[in-house]
Design goal:
Layout lengths: L8 H22 L6 H14 L3 E5 L2 H11 L7 E5 L4 H9 L3 E5 L10 H7 L4 E5 L10 H11 L2 E5 L7 E2 L2 E2 L6 E5 L13 E5 L2 H10 L4 E3 L2 E2 L10 H31 L7 E2 L7 E2 L5 E5 L4 H10 L29 H9 E4 L7 H17 L1
Parallel strand pairs: 2-3, 2-4, 4-5, 5-8
Antiparallel strand pairs: 1-9, 6-7, 6-13, 8-9, 10-11, 12-14, 14-15
Helix pairs in contact: 1-8, 2-8, 3-4, 3-7, 8-11
Bound molecules: pyridoxal-5'-phosphate.
Pyridoxal-5'-phosphate binds next to helix 3 and helix 4.
């Protein structure tokens, strides 16, 4: 019996090894390791992929969020509404700006922002909302953009887990004021190290982000505003340029794997709730995440591990209950859906090269475990 990892990046590398090796060796021998044509090429392709006029690379998804917020002028005294059920980076970026994160609950069938609660959380200080397309599942962007228009709010899309996902006929990251992407290796478009990018329709915002990522400088050694050092490395850009050409195919493979899990796991609804795809959106299945009922999640996870199946918990604690946000005085029980999900979520192995026999092994282990717990 083979060990099945949650994600196997080595297998994906093997499928592009010849191309990737040649491209990286070219960079090594060129002596140009920062900037250059590979980075602008990638920005051009990434913008074209999203049908946005502009994209700009940066050092990470966290920086993409930070640059997007700062470029839009979000700062001290502003409130930014986001999901309590996300990776810390979403809220970190808000705090880095000196703004206040305002958390709201999710819906259990989407793991995404409850948009009615977003509406209810709007105050005169609210300047922006960060929808997180969690696990690759897009937020209902039509509904959110209507709320934003009514209340004059900026929308910063956290697309870190959702490159290629769409709402209607538009890709996520091309709908709000700015799209923020991470190329951390395990994301569905991942480099071989850290990396990130923003996409936008707003030429002024692009100029602002380009200045901020380069020490607040438009002209070399003249610094107009306080910036940071946040560049997409040349080596990452060549890798991402290659991977971007395969992304739609890989996302399709993920969707096929998700569909197969859903088919093979039918009939277990009393013990587990399966993830769904939204009407009106394209899910790219960065994760296939179950809800395990009756407090049995941790036992199930251990049983799966005994049978060679590694599963993951994203996320064990919602942000409103994290020690770092104690000052905002959120209470346990305040966002019951996110809190319940944090005790029930379990993500199964999911990567484009996961084979059918491996999936069958995962499902067999899961079914066997469910009869024993
Ligand atoms: C990974 C991730 C980020 C941060 O991206 P990094 O490249 O690791 O900085 C932000 N938001 C979400 C939802 C993520 O999953």
């Amino acid at each position: 019996m083979s060990q099945i990892p949650p994600v196997d990046l080595g297998r994906q590398y093997a499928t592009i090894a010849d191309e990737a090796n040649a491209a990286v060796l070219d960079i090594l021998s060129s002596g140009r390791y920062i900037g250059g044509a590979p980075v602008t090429d990638f920005e051009t392709h990434f913008a074209a992929y999203h049908e946005t006029p502009y994209a700009a690379g940066c050092n990470s998804g966290t920086d993409a969020l930070f640059l997007g917020l700062k470029g839009l002028g979000i700062g001290a005294g502003d409130e930014v509404i986001t999901s309590t059920f996300t990776f810390i980076a979403t809220a970190e970026a808000i705090c880095m700006m000196g703004a206040t994160p305002v958390f709201v609950d999710i819906t259990a069938d989407s793991f995404n922002l409850d948009l009615d609660q977003v509406k209810a959380a709007i105050t005169p200080k609210t300047k922006a909302v960060i929808p997180v397309h969690l696990f690759g599942r897009p937020v209902d962007m039509h509904k959110l953009m209507a709320i934003a228009a009514d209340h004059n709010l900026k929308i910063i899309e956290d697309c870190a887990q959702a490159t290629g996902a769409a709402w209607g006929d538009k890709k996520v990251g091309a709908i709000g004021d700015v799209g923020c992407f991470s190329f951390f290796p395990t994301k569905n478009l991942g480099g071989c190290g850290d990396g990130g990018a923003i996409t936008t329709h707003n030429e002024r915002l692009l100029a602002e982000v380009k200045m901020l990522r380069q020490h607040g400088s438009k002209i070399r050694y003249q610094h107009d505003v306080m910036g940071v050092n946040s560049r997409l490395d040349t080596i990452q850009a060549v890798i991402l340029n290659i991977k971007l050409r395969h992304l739609d195919q890989w996302n399709k493979q993920r969707a096929a794997i998700a569909q197969r899990y859903t088919k093979l796991l039918a009939g277990l609804e009393e013990q587990i709730q399966l993830p769904t795809s939204p009407n009106g959106g394209t899910h790219i299945w960065n994760q296939y995440t179950l809800l395990v009922k009756d407090g049995k999640r941790d036992t199930l996870k251990a049983k799966l591990q005994e049978q060679g199946v590694s599963s993951m918990i994203y996320y064990p604690k919602p942000l409103h209950l994290q020690p770092v946000f104690l000052e905002y005085d959120y209470q346990s029980g305040q966002f019951p859906i996110a809190e319940e999900c944090s005790h029930q979520v379990l993500s199964l192995p999911m990567f484009p090269d996961l084979s059918e026999p491996e999936q069958q092994q995962v499902v067999a282990a899961l079914k066997k475990s469910l009869t024993e717990i």
